[in-house]
Amino acid sequence: MHSHAALAAGLRLKRVKGVIMAIKTYGLMGVDWEERTNFERLRTERLDRIKRLLKESSMGALLCFDMNNIRYITATHIGTWAMDKLTRFSLLAQDAEPILWDFGSAARHHQIYCPWLGERSRAGISTQRGAMSPESGRAEDVARKIRIELEERGLLNEPVGVDIVELPVLFALQAEGIKVVDGQQLMQMARLIKTQDEIILLNTACMMVDAAYDELYRAMKPGFRENECVGLVSKVLYDMGSEQVEGVNAISGERCSPHPHVYTDRALRPGDPAYFDILHSYNGYRTCYYRTFAIGSASPAIVDAYKRCRDILDRAIAAIKPGVTTADVVKLWPKAEDFGFPNEEAAFALQYGHGVGLSIWEKPIFSRLVSLDHPEVIEEGMVFALETFWPSSDGWSAARIEEQLVVTKTGSEVITRFPAEKLLIAGVRYYTTTGPLPTIRESQSNLNSLLDGNHSATTLTGSNATPPIV
């Protein structure tokens, strides 16, 4: 039997031999002397794809309130402040061009600066998540606008797909005689396979996170706080041209297990593990990108956890190619019970995969919770993230790693490039009278001192052994 480390190394070696870097990295500016992102092609291909899927469906039209779907269809954006307001909406009817109702003066702005919309950009406001009083009639106004457009096209009796909706708007649509059905699945199918320009933008977004991780690695040291890590990462990304830093998970020390999914003002300490997830948007396209570090040194327990975390991630990456299913991939991952959770729901998103595009969780989904019974087929042109987690045997530290991949004709290409094959030590390198302090050591000095006496390393660290992954 191969050890976990040997298996992981073998998987990586096998992949390296066949990898051809095909996805180019461009500058962030538009230039006349090199074709980079072609935004006209991006807009056209996205709209053509959803038009075709709508034509093939049983729906007469799509009504969208989800900002990401509105952007996919209309190529408009009014800032991240509007993401959770549900105030703007678009309608795409069969054999027609999209209509957008937007927030006040934004509609006029689109008429001037978005020639692909022109007069189809109109003012229209929903209930602002109930902030508008029911007596104001905003929900009824939305429904009336939609009914008029459907009537003009002879589609009033056809089902209308809606992605997300406020209940007053739903009731108002039904009162107008409109049959509402689930439109989110159709939009998810449209966004499943990425165009060449979407892949360029996703790769560029990852390049920006590469840079943010490099700055973070250089800055971390004892006393540096989790919130300062978030601030540093955000500044790097915004300075490079990020549209939105959606979130930065910054988790350190004893907060690492179980994973809390939120940062605090905790200060880093010598020997701490620290893992991060950087989620941001470049021209709408997102990243979901974990890395784990140790501050100054790493204990044998976290080193072991990192190796196991990397191992199960590499198994999954090595399996990716067109025709494989999400079930085939998650079968390679440990069960929830193998790493301390009672069931898959309790461990959800720790061994996980998800599509990445205009939002960070799109199809396909990789999880033992759903994928074994409802597998999805992996296809060329998909872009998704695979993320793994392993708790250390000390009961409080853990490792977390994530890579974003583009599915190619024969396999996949990883577009998250900050080094992660081995655990990186960040922070000050300490020196003793006899030389540099080892980077693998327990964070409590007395435990390391004992190693020089009559106690063996096996005595001290034997309890750190974790059961093999089943």
What does this entry look like structurally?
This protein has 470 residues and is of the alpha+beta class. The protein folds into two domains: 4-21 and 193-426, Creatinase/methionine aminopeptidase superfamily (Creatine Amidinohydrolase); 39-192, Creatinase/prolidase N-terminal domain (Creatine Amidinohydrolase, Chain A, domain 1, 3-Layer(aba) Sandwich), CATH 3.40.350.10. The protein is built from 13 helices and 18 strands. The strands form four sheets. A six-stranded mixed sheet has the order 4-3-2-1-5-6. It is elongated, with a radius of gyration of 25 Å. It starts with a helix and ends in a 9-residue tail after the last helix. Mean pLDDT is 91; it is low at 1-18 and 453-470.
Q: Tell me the number of strands.
A: 18
Looking across the biggest beta sheet, what order are the strands in? 4-3-2-1-5-6
CATH topology description of the largest domain: Creatine Amidinohydrolase
- Please give the largest β-sheet: 6 strands, mixed
What's the helical proportion of residues? 25-40%
Q: Report the end-to-end length measured between terminal Cα atoms.
A: 13 Å
Low-confidence stretches: 1-18, 453-470
- Annotation field: number of helices: 13
Looking at the overall shape, the CATH architecture of the largest domain is Alpha-Beta Complex
Beta-strand content: 15-25%
So, the CATH homologous superfamily of the largest domain?
Answer: Creatinase/methionine aminopeptidase superfamily
Class from helix and strand fractions: alpha+beta
Described by the principal axes of the CA atoms, the overall outline is elongated
Q: How many separate structural domains?
A: 2
**Quaternary assembly:** single chain
What value does the average pLDDT take?
A: 91
What Rg is obtained from the alpha carbons, in whole angstroms? 25 Å
CATH class of the largest domain: Alpha Beta
